[in-house]
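Sequence in, structure out.
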Amino acid sequence: MPLALLALAIGAFGIGTTEFVIMGLLPEVATDFGVSIPTAGFLVTGYALGVMFGAPLMTVLGTKVSRKRMLMVLMGLFIVGNLLSALAPAFAVMLIGRVVASLAHGAFFGIGSVVAAELVAPDKKAGAIAMMFTGLTVANVVGVPLGTLVGQSLGWRVTFTIVAALGVVGLVGIAKLVPEMPKPEGVHLRHELAAFKNVQVLLAMAMTVLGFGGVFAAITYIAPMMTHVAGFADGSVTWLLVLFGLGMVGGNLVGGKFADRALMPMLYVSLSALAVVLALFTLTAYDKVLSAVSIALIGALGFATVPPLQKRVLDQAHGAPTLASAVNIGAFNLGNALSAWLGGLVIAAGLGYTAPNWVGAVLAAAALLLAVLSAALERRESTPSAVVAAGVPAEERAAIRH
């Protein structure tokens, strides 16, 4: 793998840390600002919505500069947003800081996915994308637990200051290691927009929203769920997040490996297993050992869908994939926002801290149904081409279509 993938992984590490560390610090932030846990959950929802809207916006704004320069600009925006969060005097200001940082997220992973895929041979593209996303998953093993520990010991403001420093490291890594990769000649915004006319691109994005949304429905409220339901001490949340991160690392690497061989079967297996584990988590959350196992499995199964879904979007939007790739990252975070909001609703309705797990199971099951539909439509669309190649007369091809 090219050394430039290391630079992309460093940037992904910083972004992954700021995205996920807030979940382990929700109780501390809520207490400091005098808001409820569901209200503090808007820091997750606001970040996710910022990614969703920022992904296409920043990608379009970056069409006039090289991909390397745009990646550097995005890391600069990330640094500013996290410093604003660290210094926020009120909850609303912290929310603004989260949104500012989130504007860099979608475009960074979208453009970074395209860059990573172009650095390797065609049969290794999903693996290269997975390598970049390894930075995001490793953040959940190292960055998020340490950030949570620091936040609980020294204050959450220190955590976000450290996250901003990670952004500086990522910026330097990109400047030193990523080669100049200008946008291909002849590819304009209208070509990028044309990808959204492809129903397979839209279905892949819908699978992204629902599938990873299932993960966040449970994980957003993991701290109160584990302390109030499973009976873990507050300090144990750090190590539970390590388990989640280890699952993500393993799932990401497995998903990247098998997506280059059997993309759709990989999605069938991971989404169906994810729905089952999330449904069972409503029961296993009452046992410390089983809840720990469930958290690791949710991380693994959820992130096993990331490389195949990102590669499917790139494949279906071939020729002009940058905007579609970035919007698909926004779709991940639309799922995060939707599930965090729904999870907050069921908790606020008095259904308990395990209720978001049912929300996640339903979302994951819906993503599985879309995967089956997408494959069925693809087979149907390929049938006429196959019979043309076989020399079947036009009248018989028309009969096949009907």
